[in-house]
Queue: 2 jobs
Job 1
Amino acid sequence: MSDKIPMFKKEIDDIPVPVDKLDDIITKAVQEGVQKRKRLNGNKLLLSVGAIAATLALLIGSATVSPVMANIVSQIPVLGSIFSESGDPGLKRVSELGLTQVVGESKTVRGNTITIDEVFFDGTRLTVGYSLTSEEPLGEFYLDQGIDFTIDGKKFSFGGNGGETEITPTYRRGIYNIEPSGIDVPEEFKLGLSFEGKGGERWKFFIPVKTQTGAEFVTIDETQQAGGVGLNISTLEISPVGLRLTYNTVAEENEFFSGAYIKFKAVDSSGNELTISSEGGGHSKNENGKIYAKGNSLFEPIDESVTKLTITPYLDLSSVGGGVEFDGAGNETSIDFEPNKEEIKFDSFTVTLP
Amino acid sequence: MVTKRMLVVRAKKGDAEALQTLIHEEKEKLYKMAYVYVQNEDDALEVFQETVYKAIKSIAKLKNNDYFSTWMTRILINTAIAFLKKKQGIVPLSQEVLENLGEPWHMKKEEQLDLLEAMDEIEEKYKTVLLLRFYEDYSISQISKFLHCPEGTVKTNIRRGLAALKKKMKGVYKDVRQNSHV
């Protein structure tokens, strides 16, 4: 058929191709992709300020929902059950305490119904749970364009993770955790959610959200220096959703270091290690040859008998991958990254809880 | 000899080298398709980049190892359409820009457009079927499966797309339409 319209094919074939730029994109994306895939498996994400918006779309549909979520076997949609079955102990707790907002608003477009199940904002992390019911089975990339979020009608940058779990071929549940940045989030606001289906269908919701305040903040201000990496742990936030440590890092730009590699171990006074609920989001920026990052880690809620926590920062390089570089002649060279872990060691410190 | 299928299997297991080889094979075709949608190099590169990132993120989910190329094309088209929608939605023209626009853009209709310009002016649904049919050489049945829509709709959109192209190009494509048995 196409030989009858050679002009069509020829004109498109004649479009000049910036091969070098494409090659750069591919090399960079493959390297980053390998790292990101591993990092996402650890449920941690750190995004550079400029890349947040662009990377957002990439996170959609990623398989970062906890295994517990993936194991949901319930066939019956129960409103307000997505958080408690998400496998996140903090979300389960706030859901059970009635601190989340059970929404239950549904919209149907071309036979496919999206229901916003539950929403929670603790001042840092915004979590949205939804379900999608369809008349016909939907492909796995059906909502792959992701969700557009607005706060009082304004778009904003954010980092986060999320994904969907197929419960039956015509019923799936999704949960998204995002941390807005670059916007002052008021205590009460209207959350805009816009889902886009593969065929361009749109479901739009405007949900009034009230920030769940009442968190207690403990100032830590612990600063350490190890192997060229400066680390400051500024605060510990205690709330029903859990314990959130906020930290900053600074390192030389060319050190192949990212704040995302910093993790924390927390042990209570009885020697029990706390489970991480979420490695949290983060942002980094390069300035004057240095890379500055800010991030947080959320631990499971603790009971009131705990009075002290011993916290140990450590470098987790399991998310660092290698890559392959192609030169102009198409020859490939392996790129391996193996920094000196011995040099980057932090000390444990103790935090007394109020 | 390493077949494409084997490369796909390796890429799905996280082999960065295999994935890179696969994407290199597709890059020029993908870039050109992106260009048809967005009509400039910077935006085409952005769409290409986003497509590559999406592919890397989702490669493990690719169900049929023989369909890597089709799968990448699908991601590219979805990405390009989403890009255009987003761009249309967020780029307000300032008064200064409006005042300095000069000739109204529709004056161009008085001229004869070339194919790429004409493609830029037709609806996305026509653009997509024409690209798949006449650039990718997909059959009507393949396009129907690719776009999840009935074959009748595909045929109609190809006919209408060609008619729209013909109109924009002032008859240059007259023969195309007559010879295309869609």
Job 2
Amino acid sequence: MPATGIGAPVRRKEDHRFLTGRGHYTDDINRAGQSYAYFVRSPHAHAAIKRVDTSRARAMPGVLAVLTGEEFANDKIGSLVCGWMINSKDGSAMKMAPHPAIARGKVNHVGDAVGVVVAETLAQAMDAAEKLAVDYDVLPAVVDPAKAQMPSAPQIHEIAPSNTIYDWQIGDATTVEAVFRNANHVVKLDIVNNRLVPNAIEPRAAIAEYDSGTQTLTLWNTTQNPHVARLVISAFVGIAPEHKLRVIAADVGGGFGSKIFIYPEEVVCLWAARRIGRPVKWVSGRSEAFLADAHGRDHVTHAEMALDGEHRITGLRVKTVANLGAYMSTFSSSIPTYLYATLLSGQYAIPAIHCEVNAVYTNTVPVDAYRGAGRPEATFVVERLVEVAARELGVDVADLRRKNFITRFPHQTPVIMNYDAGDYAASLDRALELADYGGFEGRKRESSRRGKLRGIGFSTYIEACGIAPSQAAGSLGCGVGLWESAEVRVNPTGSVEVLTGCHQHGQGHETTFAQVVSDRLGIPIENVSIVHGDTDKVQFGMGTYGSRSGAVGISAIVKALDKIEAKAKRVAAHVLEAAEGDIVLKDGNFTVSGTDKSAAWGDVALQAYIAHKFGGGELEPGLKEGAFYDPTNFTFPAGCHICEIEVDPQTGESEIVAWTAVDDFGTVVNPLIVEGQVHGGIVQGVGQALFEGAVYDRDGQLLTGSLMDYCLPRAHNVPALKVDMTTTKCPSNPLGIKGCGEAGAIAAPAAVINALTHAIGTEELTMPATAQNVWLALQKSAHLHKAA
Amino acid sequence: MYAFSPHRPTTLRQAANLLAKQEEAKLVAGGHTLIPTMKLRLAGPKHLIDLSRIEGLRDIEVTGRSLIIGAMTTHAEVSISPVARESIPALAELAEKIGDPAVRHRGTIGGSIANNDPNADYPAAVLGLGATVITNKRRIHANEFFKGLFETALAPDEIITKVQFPKVNKAGYVKFPNPASRYALVGVFVSKRGSEIRVAVTGAGANGVFRMRAFEEALKKRFAPKSLEGLSAPAEGMASDIHGSAEYRAHLIGVLARRAVAAAIA
């Protein structure tokens, strides 16, 4: 079955329904008697709530309920929590402040919910919301992470003096100090990793419904991990016991991490639905999403790299302040620590690394995982340092990288990670060839004749995916296990349903997971359905994020398929009256080796269910198996991206003129989908580098509050991308898959900024490198040159 | 959106009467500014008077030495009109680059200039070509039409019917789009008609579209980019926001003016 098996470029099975408007997104679902929720949000970044008067709002037409933090507290609904415990250097626990779904007493960012109106129609809810009177006592705000710990900054939460959540470190400071004392060259950079606003095409939405007969709550929700949502909402927030809460995340239109988290709105919808006895629907507006969805990145970093006389990197010293916003979102604490600092070795053999991270509260929207989550920030630090080191040393940027590449595996870095496999020189070589690196000087001269500056920049990135093993994650503070589950149900007619704990919201699992089954059982891909996103169907699962579905989710399916094949062979042995050990499954047929006896897959499936050929004492009827797969290591996708850029020195405008990406994702199930993931990731990374950046004013107002001011990359901002792959299989999982979902977003920002700084001849350039920023950098360096 | 009453007059007179009679009434042409503003509840007119059913507001014609464009003509219609392309190519090219396809197929020239958004493209062309705005009541020369941010010389019950552009010897428009909104961060329209030179700037001014007299003087000597070499606009009086400081906008005026002249003589 090679046409639909592993490695085949199968077109996505799910696209037909998405492209023809037949998807079932949360907003497509409507329940009988449904009402509508509208949230009243704080216009202030930091303020005491003096008084909330709901009387006028309650009196408005169609209003079913006006609920505030007071009612929420009275009903003893718990706080939202962050599920990853990080300890400071001194051993003290991170300072997790309460995060009620509706603020009470104090608001801490613009957009913090202060009340919710539920009405017969959305328009009525909006009208009534305007009548909710809230008296605020405005307090000074702090938005800049670099200023959050200053004595002059207002303290946001009582629990966190100096707004410090934790002061964490990794690596050996003493060794690193010694390395820097003996260094021949030290490269230093100050880096701001800009705050990003995720913009999935489908805004978040929730519908909650209460069945008073069974005392069961059902939540339709745009989540990347319905089971984790159910667990947190029942065990921590305490809305309903786990077995009385069903979470359904049917079709979800993109997440990029922003739909991992457990948000106030779905909690409030559940609570309100039970209070008023009516289904409650909430759909976020785009502008609302800018204030209510977790943002990404937002680091301020000082980084130094030490090199010896032979240009070998001997050490890395990094100090980062990470802005976590006004509250600790679900996995926020882990992003700037174990998903960031553990990747600071990059693709290089660096003997000594020390990194300190201070996480701080500010009066801004909470920050959590966003495509890449910590790894783009780490890659940016390492790849900028290496590029600048090469420039300062006057050596070729590719040569310096090659000299420092890790070449023997497994490789233990000084920051936890144990790289299992890779061939970094292979992807670099292929990228140099595809990018025609040798021809760059000629192209630069040609650009120069047209009055343009041209630069080339590299990013030889590494990432850690398939986050786990659970035991290791637990020892680092993670509150959950990071395994995955699968259940393979073979129907009597031989068609197959695979229940997975992963969740698809753009990844194409309905195609790739089915390919794995088709390949293994030799049945047509049309005969395989992938079931996900419903806690009543799938027993448990950890969802989809961190490029984990291939490496972890498919591994669980493979494990379940092993059991299915074994059981099916036992059935086939009875059907074919042969010894179990002689049964061979190939191309959808069971044969007895050395004979011409055979039985089709479907016949054996039927026999498993009618159970006419074996006794109950010999074999259980049925053909259904489940498996839990817990990885034994992270996976380590890596690769080389090369960006070539042209700059108009008169306006500062830049244009990416060529892009080469050579990635090593291990085994690729569907190259078409993988290439799409690479494209999307690169464009998001280009967005961070050139266009995107959340801007707050000093009072904490989000100036980039809509797509009129927050610039997403567009199709014309990227050239045709040259994408290729090299392969070293991942040794720790059955198919050798590494993961591909985030690679582009991790690699791209450093490649773009390395190319831009190369073109303009100054390293003083911050992201997003808008035309104005590039022009300013050029002006500044021209002045400096004049002065010199 | 707040509730409102829609009206669909079929004559200018009906529209003008509705506008005069109804409290808190607004005209809607293409609606690509007003409707989004209403959806965000930032505007809440009680009456919306739709001009799309009024005959005769959508013609593009040449009479004598003028190109006349009906107020309800969409940007897309102007951009593909052979008449417009033939008589003032720079104007058709400007229309071709406004906003995105949805805006170009709904947005109208009358709506754009009546709104007088400080970052819109059309005001630069109207002022840069010395056009005349024709209403149901009178003719208003471009010099007198634009009065500041979102302010025009239009009376509350006045409706734009046509815009009359004089044909010129040369014209060019170059804009630097705001990367997010695609409105002009700075846009410069230049034209030459006999000895009359106009350089109109949109996007940059703190008070909306304006003429760069110093550039016009310099171009009178010779209508060539070289005449503007080394000239730049003062930062004083320029708009400043997260997308462009006053200094950057002032700098761009010089760069774009040279490019617009180059386009005009190309």
